C-alpha cells in the first residue's frame, strides 16, 4: 500500500468518481427498509404538524401493513393499514 507521500507525488491523474444519478445509486448496498422508514416517519411528522394527506409522500402505497419495516415505524402500522384500505382492496 502506498503511503501519503507516494500518493501525493504520483504522476497519474486523480480519478474522481461521478456523483450518483439516482436514489438507487446513492443508497447502493444499504437496506431499503431504512430509507422507507425515514420517508414514512417524516411524512407522519408532517401530518402531525397539520399537513394535508394529499400533500405528503404516500408511503403507505409501498409498505405492507404486516412487513417488518412497518412494524418498526415509530407511529405504528395503523395508519398504513388504514390508508391502504381507504384507497382500495386490502392485502
Write a structural description.
The chain has helices spanning 4-8, 23-26, 32-48, 68-71, 78-87. It has five helices and no strands. The protein has one domain (4-87). It starts with a helix and ends with a helix. By secondary structure, the protein is mainly α.
The H-and-E topology, N to C, reads as HHHHH
Mean pLDDT: 82
What's the β-strand tally? 0
Number of helices: 5
Q: Measured on Cα atoms, how large is the radius of gyration?
A: 21 Å
> Strand percentage, roughly?
under 5%
Separation of termini? 54 Å
Helix content: 40-55%
- What would the principal axes of the Cα set say about the shape? elongated
Structural class: mainly alpha
Oligomer: single chain
Pick out the low-confidence regions: none
Write the layout of secondary structure elements.
Elements: H1 4-8, H2 23-26, H3 32-48, H4 68-71, H5 78-87
What does this entry show, briefly?
The chain has 91 residues and is an all-alpha fold. The protein has 5 helices and no strands.
Keywords:
about 90 residues; mainly alpha; 5 helices; about 0% strand; elongated
Amino acid at each position: 500500500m502506498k503511503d501519503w507521500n507516494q500518493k501525493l507525488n504520483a504522476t497519474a491523474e486523480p480519478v474522481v468518481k461521478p456523483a450518483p444519478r439516482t436514489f438507487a445509486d446513492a443508497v447502493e448496498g444499504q437496506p431499503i427498509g431504512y430509507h422507507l422508514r425515514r420517508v414514512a416517519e417524516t411524512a407522519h411528522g408532517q401530518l402531525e404538524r397539520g399537513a394535508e394527506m394529499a400533500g405528503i409522500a404516500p408511503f403507505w402505497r409501498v409498505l405492507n401493513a404486516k412487513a417488518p419495516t412497518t412494524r418498526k415505524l415509530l407511529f405504528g402500522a395503523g395508519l398504513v393499514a388504514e390508508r391502504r384500505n381507504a384507497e382500495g382492496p386490502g392485502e
